[in-house]
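In this section we walk through a basic example: taking a raw amino acid sequence and producing a predicted 3D structure, encoded as discrete structure tokens. The instruction is simple. Fold the sequence below.
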Amino acid sequence: MRFVGLLTILLCASAYAAPAYDRDDWKHWIDADIDCQNTRQEFLIRRSIVPVTFTVRQDGRDCTVRTGAWFDPATGQFFVHGSDVDIDHTIPLKWAHDHGGHAFTPTQKEAFANDWRNLAIMDDGTNSSKSDQGPSQWMPPNSGHNCEYLLRWRFLLDEYGLTAGTADEDMINNGLAECALR
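The resulting token sequence is shown next.
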């Protein structure tokens, strides 16, 4: 009898589990205005503190940013080569998927993946170490950026109706309470 009850609980729980994450479902780096510069390139252009240069294509179009000057608040470092930085999703796409985003429509997933409020310049190695972790597992190495980082998380969670687990929610709330005391 106990086994049957446990099996029923497991079957019911699996019926409500999020489907497997597929990054291709979250169309990112789109070229919304069809000018050959996708979201990543346009973000690099607008966030550079100096005029950017491009790797010119054979057809003469300026589609890919080569150089500029970008500040990564997560590490406190500056970069001058577009290839040295990633455009980080503050709330990683997989994390969003696992915390309610799986129910987004394809249009909502695309909007989330390209929402500039969820994007940040980040050192590529640091972005790799962050991966798909929430704030309870990863915080910026530059602790001076923590308040802004947690504020962004809170805003995006509320904006998109995502649900953080207890550990992430506690990290956000406790961190923001500390920020308020400064």
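Looking at the output, two observations stand out. The chain has a mean pLDDT of 92. The longest helix spans residues 166-181. In the next section we compare this with other chains.
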